[in-house]
Design brief:
Elements: E1 10-11, H1 19-32, H2 39-52, E2 56-57, E3 61-62, E4 65-68, E5 75-85, E6 94-103, H3 108-120, H4 124-132, H5 136-143, H6 169-175, H7 177-180, H8 200-207, H9 216-222, E7 233-239, H10 246-260, E8 264-269, H11 280-285, E9 288-293, E10 308-311, H12 313-318, H13 320-333, H14 357-390, H15 409-424, H16 427-440, H17 445-457, H18 461-480, H19 492-512, H20 514-529, H21 533-549, H22 554-567, H23 574-600, H24 607-621, H25 629-634, H26 636-657, E11 660-661, E12 674-675, H27 677-700
Parallel strand pairs: 1-5, 3-6, 4-6, 7-8, 7-9, 9-10
Antiparallel strand pairs: 2-3, 5-6, 11-12
Helix pairs in contact: 1-2, 3-6, 3-10, 14-15, 14-16, 14-22, 16-17, 16-18, 17-18, 17-19, 18-19, 18-20, 21-22, 21-23, 21-26, 22-23, 23-24, 23-26, 23-27, 26-27
Length: about 725
């Protein structure tokens, strides 16, 4: 790590009071050293990574990081804050801030060294030393492990070459970093130097790699630790969006917790430097699996048929002992979870063990909605195109199998309409199936789809689909808790669970709860059909607020699903089409308003935000609310309330004007399919102007942070001081 951090990249008196200002202060040091070529571009990449998931960790650590084309070489900057900076950690502000910058095409060796630092951050001795180190040179030497961690207060005169043969943990980690990229599938090397490490000898024997990559010198030490009986064995996979820090910190945390509890933990880190697959024999011998990831686990099917805990990468960092206990409990109960598709993402998980039922329910429902939305978009747009070409009477056309004339536009319109209708027919089964999948993984798919199809059969609609999905997931989860003989476990996910769960769900839907749900669905439909006047306007305002609250998040998706449910029939009611129009109009407001604000008062925004504003024009016009997320992440307390006010205005006006929409997506490009299109555009313009005006006023009232350094007259971008302002941290 000798060329990654120097004293010039260390600030032991970091005065920033926001994470944006901290990143800017440290990045400016990188620019001064020629490590970063474009300050604003690099900070935009850092902010984009931060928007994916907060980088604060328990223990007072913040690790903003990113891969960026504006970085010339892998670089690390360190800042120490006396007041603390909020990076989103559960236990409060961070006083140790590491800004990690990796080039887009960084080589594996450099990324391996960065991963070594990430592992060191899990060592309390290392972080304690950083809190007491006396000057920048000594701090840089400590981070490079040129001084033993025991010499926390050592001056810059730490003995050179101390990293070789150091008994402390920090030197040990770096001493083996050259081999670490080939060893990502094994327990960290530094543990081999700790006498009595549980299970180390057994692990080396089972993988057949005790002498690999320079470890032959370690095997003798590790072999001195004899276990009276075979330890419990866990294999784990850790991965995060950037693959630089959280991936390796999670691995280190799991390994440390395993060592403390006498459990053998072998981790496959799927990081930026690539990954080495666990030996199949290691996976075969494992008693349980932990997936700690925020991006898809690659080759996930390798771990099928074992007790599995699936959670986010931060859970492995903050509560590894709980995860190990959870997987041991599942193994004791004989709960076997089949591996999901290779592309499984966090929305498909049922939530971590420490999450409440409200959080888990939200994740389960979002799983179903996220899979349903593409069917909504495809089917709805095809239906809308059919109406546009053949008129609204096209829903009465005979089947194109019986009557199709190549030269007639009506035949093509009927074809599009009927294909869209088939796609729409999947909405409820897909919703139910993937709610169940979010709860119980792949075994929940069959009963979920069966229950969703039954909901359509009995006219229970979307309410029936929601109920069928939740019931299916619950039934499968209950079956998985039953102790099953080992000889039968292999056929459980393929035969027994689908058979039993489908029969139970079918019985409940047909005989027990189907009729009450169908009645409730009919009552809700009738209520929507009767909406008029003030009630319709209030509903439009409420839907507008929901669409702009979290910009594509759960609340936004609830409003969108509510609207699409109403038009997911061949002949939707007028009220349902008004609701769809109001929802789409409100969803277009935030990005369009941010684009307008950056155009009218660009000096209130930094360079990266002004660039995002240009893209927001297209995103907003296309009904992609997520186009406003970069602005909301940087300044949520100004952007989100302003967006909600504008969205409510647009939703209310759209309902008042009686605008209707048969297409569930498309934005400005489906205006020809909208009833009262001119007034509809007026409603959107009104909301955009309201939101843009509010954002401009609120940002104009913002006071710069005390102690901010003023730029020279006329030369600097006024936005340069913006991150120094006292701003709330993005949620």
């Amino acid at each position: 790590m000798s060329d990654m951090i120097t004293a010039d990249l260390v600030d032991l008196d970091l005065s920033a009071d926001t994470k944006e200002a901290a990143a800017r202060a440290l990045a400016e040091r990188m620019v001064a050293q020629g490590r970063v070529t474009d300050l604003e571009g690099f900070l935009a990449d850092v902010a984009a990574r931060e928007a994916q998931m907060p980088t604060g960790l328990d223990g007072g650590i913040g690790i903003p990081h990113c891969r960026s084309e504006h970085v010339t070489e892998p670089t690390l900057a360190f800042g120490r804050s006396a007041a603390g900076i909020d990076f989103g950690a559960a236990d409060g502000p961070a006083d140790l801030v590491f800004l990690i910058a990796a080039p887009t095409g960084a080589d594996d060796a450099h990324l391996t060294i960065l991963s070594s630092l990430a592992r060191q951050l899990m060592n309390a001795e290392f972080t304690t030393a950083l809190r007491s180190v006396g000057d920048a040179t000594a701090a840089a030497a400590l981070i490079r492990s040129e001084a033993p961690t025991g010499d926390a207060g050592a001056s810059a005169g730490a003995p050179e070459g101390a990293s070789e043969g150091v008994s402390g943990r920090g030197g040990d980690s770096v001493a083996v970093s050259a081999a670490a990229s080939a060893e990502t599938a094994t327990v960290s090397t530094d543990k081999a130097h700790e006498p009595g490490t549980p299970g180390r000898s057994a692990q080396s024997d089972q993988s057949g790699e005790s002498g690999r990559s320079g470890r032959s010198g370690e095997s003798g030490q590790a072999g001195t630790s004899e276990q009276p009986e075979r330890p419990f064995r866990i294999v784990a996979v850790t991965s995060c969006p950037t693959g630089i820090a959280h991936t390796y910190m999670a691995a280190e945390s799991l390994e440390n917790a395993g060592r403390e509890s006498g459990v053998e933990v072998v981790v496959e880190t799927q990081g930026s430097a690539g990954f080495t697959r666990l030996d199949p024999s290691v996976i075969e011998a494992a008693d349980g699996v932990i997936f700690a990831h925020d991006v898809p686990v690659r080759d996930k099917e390798r771990f099928a048929g074992k007790p599995t805990v699936d959670t986010g990468v931060k859970a492995a960092i903050n509560r590894p002992g709980e995860l190990i206990g959870e997987v041991r409990g599942k193994a004791a109960r004989g709960e076997v979870t089949a591996a999901g598709p290779a592309g499984a993402t966090p929305v498909e998980r049922g939530g971590g063990s420490g999450e409440g039922y409200g959080t888990k329910l939200r994740v389960w429902l979002m799983s179903g909605v996220s899979y349903m939305v593409p069917f909504v978009a495809a089917g709805g747009l095809l239906i809308a195109l059919g109406f546009a070409i053949g008129g609204y009477e096209i829903n009465q056309a005979p089947s194109v199998m019986d009557h199709f004339v190549w030269s007639q536009a009506d035949s093509w319109a009927a074809l599009l309409f009927q294909i869209g209708g088939v796609a729409f027919a999947f909405l409820v089964p897909v919703l139910a199936g993937y709610i169940a999948y979010g709860m119980a993984d792949r075994p929940g798919l069959v009963p979920g789809f069966v229950g969703g199809s039954i909901a359509l059969t009995i006219n229970a609609g979307f309410l029936g689909g929601l109920a069928a999905g939740l019931i299916s997931g619950a039934v499968v989860m209950a079956i998985q808790r039953i102790r099953i003989p080992a000889a039968v476990r292999g056929i459980m996910p393929v035969v027994v669970i689908p058979l039993v769960s489908s029969a139970i769900v079918g019985f409940l839907m047909f005989v027990v709860i189907g009729k009450p749900i169908a009645s409730a669905q009919k009552a809700m439909t009738d209520w929507l059909s009767d909406l008029s006047g003030a009630n319709a306007i209030l509903l439009g305002a409420l839907l507008g607020l929901m669409m702009c609250f979290d910009l594509g998040g759960p609340v936004n998706k609830v409003a969108y699903a509510f609207a699409t449910a109403g038009i997911a029939v061949s002949d939707p009611s007028d009220s349902a089409m008004k609701i769809m129009a109001a929802v789409m109009a409100a969803g277009m407001v935030p990005p369009l308003a941010m684009a307008l604000a950056t155009t009218v008062r660009g000096r209130l925004f930094n360079a990266a935000e002004r660039e995002n504003g240009k893209a927001a024009w297209v995103l907003g016009a296309s009904f992609i609310s997520e186009g406003a997320i970069p602005f909301a992440a940087a300044d949520p307390l100004r952007v989100i309330p302003s967006s909600m006010v504008g969205g409510a205005v647009t939703g209310a006006l759209s309902m008042a004007f009686g605008a209707t929409l048969r297409a569930p997506h498309g934005g400005i490009f489906v205006v020809p399919l909208i009833g009262n299109p001119l007034l509809y555009l007026v409603a959107i313009a009104a909301g955009v102007c309201v939101t843009a005006a509010l954002v401009i006023v609120l940002k104009g009232l913002r006071k710069p942070a005390q102690g901010a350094v003023a730029q020279g007259p006329g030369g600097a971008d006024p936005s340069a001081s913006t991150p120094g302002a006292k701003q709330p941290v993005a949620a």
